[in-house]
Amino acid sequence: MSELFGWLSGLIGLHWKMLDALLVAVGLVIYVAASHTLHQRRHPSAAIAWVMGILLVPYVTLPLYLAFGSRKVVAPRPAQGARRMRANAANTPAARAQQLGAAMGLPDPAVYSELGIHDDGRQALVALRRIILGASQTLEVSTFVFGRDVLGDEIAEKLKQKARAGVRVRLLIDGIGVYLGGYPDLKGFAEAGVEVLRFVPPFRSTKRGRTNLRNHRKMVIADGRHLWCGGRNLSAEYFEGDPRPILGSTPWLDLSFDLDGELAGQAQQQFEQDWAFASERPTPAPKISETPAPDVKTLAQLVASGPDQPDDTIFTLLISGCFTSQQRILAVTPYFVPDTALITALSLAARRGIEVDLVLPARSNHRLADFARHRAMRDLVAAGARIWLHPHMIHAKAVLIDDDFSLVGSANLDGRSLFLNYEMMIAFYDHKAVHGFSSWVEARRQECAPYVVRTPGMARELAEGLLLWLAFQL
Question: Within 13 Å of residue 40, how many CA atoms lie on the same side as its CB?
Fold first, then answer.
């Protein structure tokens, strides 16, 4: 009898080993085929992490890969597209950025007017109210979080009022972000006539393999002519906080702006594309805008980045800016977990004498990001850069290259924003605008304390490495 049990145990064990081997083989085939067919360019450590996971724990890793493994949802750009780069004799960061933008198929730089840079949450809210209440035909709102608090309730009521007045109001909320602010009253929106879509809801979306790709773009567009944009979600902590005792929150420092003109129309086109994707309808054909005259100075360019772009547009412009900068790089971000290429580019800029200043919160709302950022911070300081820690939570996202070029919008300097999220930045080429944003960031820098490097122990270095390898690459 014992021999029979032994034989059966061996047979079952062999069966499971064969099943494990088959699952590993299938998993590797799926990974290789998907990466090749969909042109999923990943950082080497991310690729190693997926392959090792499939080899060691296939029953866990393969379902995770099928759910979260996709990074791009469009075909790669042809080697030579229909649009040609415009010749530009100037060898400045702005000129190089515009050449790269043309090569990556970004919309042409567009004219804007009446740029307002919001000093604080109060000014941001005044501008937001003005744009919403001024809409007469259409109103598009895209946000990652829509809070159930004093700010969210006010904006919700204003959107409902405009819809009842006959304005077409559309609200696009991320499918994960919708749960992070207290879950807005979607039924109330619908009853008032506001059209609401959740962008790839994780439990109901038919877009398999894309539930890890979040829409982090933030914009409010009125009548296709007025744009409110930046890093703020529609929740109280991004403006003035919530004074109610139960929901009370300390306001964060954030950066947003509003403007008028053709650039707002480009933002509306981007919203239309995002809306079509979320509603699983055909993407509307982009409108062709006139190229501005060469003497027009107030130009800016919409830079969308994410799975819907063949290129990693924001990342590419950042790397280029590091190498073309001639004087200074000034950046502010709440989360700083860059990949090797970006930290190398920033370090090389510092080593060749460029002033590199980075403003971060001393403590953000993401403790893992705070823990993982120190390796990159130590490397930057060793190269001669300066890092400044703000005593309050700062949620602003901006990078300024010399006095020539700035990127301002929704993207953080981490792998998720630069390679996974749907993000949107505005590239400003007008010196007055660049100076305005630079002054805002510089004012925050003056409120900071310098970062002091502390030599890590072996345990901390190991923990940082594991966290960077696993949490911020997959």
Answer: 24
The CATH number for 147's domain is: 3.30.870.10
Helix (H, G, I), strand (E, B) or coil at 424: strand
**How far is 143 from 6, CA to CA, in rounded Å?**
61
pLDDT in tens, 175-225: 999 999 888 999 999 999 999 999 988 776 665 555 667 899 999 999 999
Q: How many structural domains comprise the chain?
A: 3
All residues at 6 or more sequence positions from 171 whose CB lies less than 8 Å from its CB, including other chains: 141, 143, 146, 159, 189, 194, 195, 196, 197
Q: Confirm if 162 and 131 have CB atoms less than 8 A apart.
A: no
How far does Cα 270 stand from its chain's mean position? 15
Which pair of tokens denotes residue 314? 């924001």
CA angle (451 as vertex; 375, 241 as ends), nearest 5: 100
End of a domain among 247, 279, 311?
A: 279
144 part of a folded domain: yes
Range of the domain at 50: 2-68
- Rounded CA-CA distance 410/421 in Å is 10
pTM: 0.82
- Residue 98 CA to residue 447 CA, distance in Å, equals 33
